[in-house]
């Protein structure tokens, strides 16, 4: 029998169900959500919350969207899943057609993966197989920049920040990779090439063993919500070309308009050799990601020297239900309203958040596209802060010293104001450190 008592469910949950990065002995409080529509979540306890998180960058068109619902309903009545080995279907073809209309020219060979982390694993595998095919198997190491985050699986963890990353516990079990310093210049600084000259050293010294560089373009998300200079990325592209190293960009958080450009790489006017997308691909409806490359890499990886095939094939690859929703979400992106929506959010965030940097408890305030960040001087007490936010009618989940929002693109001016007022109120409740 279904138990519809939400308080009992919460109790059961606390005892039996793991949540992201959460203790089973002393879990953080958890809220029971009944439904979500537009840009609001409805809790079972009755509160209606404006959503500042887009369910971790994903729900760009908002919840319970009629077009996305319709795509899901239509697909589930045909089939929700069939294996992708030896079979294909309209949702996968539609999704990839929509996707490759958005990706940079030439980036049109697509591996459909089942989560962001898996798409990073596949990208890494592609780069390793690429060099095996070219009979240079010694090129099998990765270079990345400190402060990054690329997922929770093992190869992805190996390129997360080695110190502050959430994965330092697994150090002994991870492949040692190479870590360049964090970019020194922010997105908004004047470009001074000498500030970032350290980057070249890694290529000069290690290019013979480097398969690829893996980076989050422009915005380092879970590793600190840092936004770095586009010329840094440009320089990386040039060095990769000069020293024959593949460039893998992880656009899982930044893709589909979040930073004000369709993909963050556009800020630097570069194209990667391999890119990963996920999160907003289905507008948060279900898990789906993709690893995208060009004809040259795809064909090299498929060479007989490296076994003749890319060695990856998950059970739920190309899931028709997820692809059908993704195809519709991408169609909406292709319609282009996101540009105006993100620009409007950016202006309002700049107006409402940047001046909060003057408060002594705030170290920095920054806004890029539909991302607003307040970096505090001190760690935030997540449980206490969330209690306050719920009382304010907003859903914001801080981490570390970061209070940040990345709302759905469909948020109204009034809803966004409610989010930024809650953030301002939280800041003003803090004592100077
Ligand atoms: N890369 C980046 C930049 C991410 O932000 C995330 C998710 N937080 C991932 C990879 C991993 O994606 P997933 O959680 O879907 O495995």
UniProtKB/TrEMBL annotation:
Q: Which Enzyme Commission numbers does its entry carry?
A: 2.6.1.62
Query: Where is substrate bound in this sequence?
Result: 56, 149, 279, 313, 397
Its UniProt pathway annotation is: Cofactor biosynthesis; biotin biosynthesis; 7,8-diaminononanoate from 8-amino-7-oxononanoate (SAM route): step 1/1
Where does the record place the site Participates in the substrate recognition with KAPA and in a stacking interaction with the adenine ring of SAM? 21
Concerning InterPro entries, the annotation shows: Aminotrans_3, Aminotrans_3_PPA_site, BioA, PyrdxlP-dep_Trfase, PyrdxlP-dep_Trfase_major, PyrdxlP-dep_Trfase_small
Q: Where in the cell is it found?
A: Cytoplasm
Question: Which CDD domains does UniProt cross-reference here?
Answer: OAT_like
Q: Main role?
A: Catalyzes the transfer of the alpha-amino group from S-adenosyl-L-methionine (SAM) to 7-keto-8-aminopelargonic acid (KAPA) to form 7,8-diaminopelargonic acid (DAPA). It is the only aminotransferase known to utilize SAM as an amino donor.
Summary of subunit composition and partner proteins: Homodimer.
Q: Which family does it belong to?
A: Belongs to the class-III pyridoxal-phosphate-dependent aminotransferase family. BioA subfamily.
What is the name of this protein?
Adenosylmethionine-8-amino-7-oxononanoate aminotransferase
- Organism whose genome encodes this protein: Idiomarina seosinensis
């Amino acid at each position: 029998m279904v138990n519809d008592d939400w308080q009992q469910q919460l109790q059961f949950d606390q005892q039996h169900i793991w949540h992201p990065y959460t203790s089973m002995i002393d879990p953080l409080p958890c809220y029971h959500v009944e439904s979500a529509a537009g840009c609001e979540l409805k809790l079972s306890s009755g509160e209606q919350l404006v959503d500042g998180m887009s369910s971790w960058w994903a729900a760009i068109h908002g919840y319970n969207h009629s077009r996305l619902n319709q795509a899901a309903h239509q697909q589930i009545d045909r089939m929700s899943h069939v294996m992708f080995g030896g079979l294909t279907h309209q949702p996968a073809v539609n999704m990839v057609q929509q996707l490759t209309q958005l990706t940079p020219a030439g980036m049109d060979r697509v591996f459909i993966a089942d989560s962001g982390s898996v798409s990073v694993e596949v990208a890494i595998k592609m780069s390793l197989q690429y060099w095996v095919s070219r009979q240079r198997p010694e090129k099998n190491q990765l270079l990345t920049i400190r402060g990054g985050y690329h997922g929770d699986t093992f190869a992805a963890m190996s390129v997360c920040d080695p110190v502050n990353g959430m994965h330092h516990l697994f150090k002994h079990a991870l492949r040692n990779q190479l870590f360049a310093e964090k970019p020194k210049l922010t997105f908004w600084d004047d470009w001074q090439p000498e500030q970032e000259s350290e980057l070249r050293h890694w290529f000069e010294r290690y290019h013979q063993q480097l398969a690829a560089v893996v980076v989050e373009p422009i915005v380092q998300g879970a590793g600190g919500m840092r936004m770095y200079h586009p010329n840094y990325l440009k320089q990386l592209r040039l060095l990769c070309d000069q020293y024959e190293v593949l460039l893998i960009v992880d656009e899982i958080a930044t893709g589909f308009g979040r930073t004000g450009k369709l993909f963050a790489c556009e800020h630097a006017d570069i194209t990667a050799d391999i890119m990963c997308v996920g999160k907003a691909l289905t507008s948060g409806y279900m898990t789906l990601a993709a690893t995208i490359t060009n004809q040259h890499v795809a064909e090299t990886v498929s060479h007989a020297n490296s076994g003749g095939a890319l060695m990856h094939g998950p059970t739920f690859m190309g899931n028709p239900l997820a692809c059908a929703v993704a195809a519709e979400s991408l169609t909406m992106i292709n319609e282009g309203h996101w540009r105006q929506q993100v620009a409007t959010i950016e202006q309002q965030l700049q107006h409402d958040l940047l001046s909060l940097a003057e408060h002594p408890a705030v170290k920095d305030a920054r806004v890029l596209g539909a991302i607003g960040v307040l970096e505090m001087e001190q760690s935030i007490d997540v449980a206490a802060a969330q209690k306050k936010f719920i009382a304010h009618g907003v859903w914001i989940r801080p981490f570390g010293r970061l209070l940040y929002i990345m709302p759905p693109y469909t948020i109204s001016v009034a809803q966004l104001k409610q989010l930024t007022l809650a953030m301002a109120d939280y800041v003003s409740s803090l004592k100077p450190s």
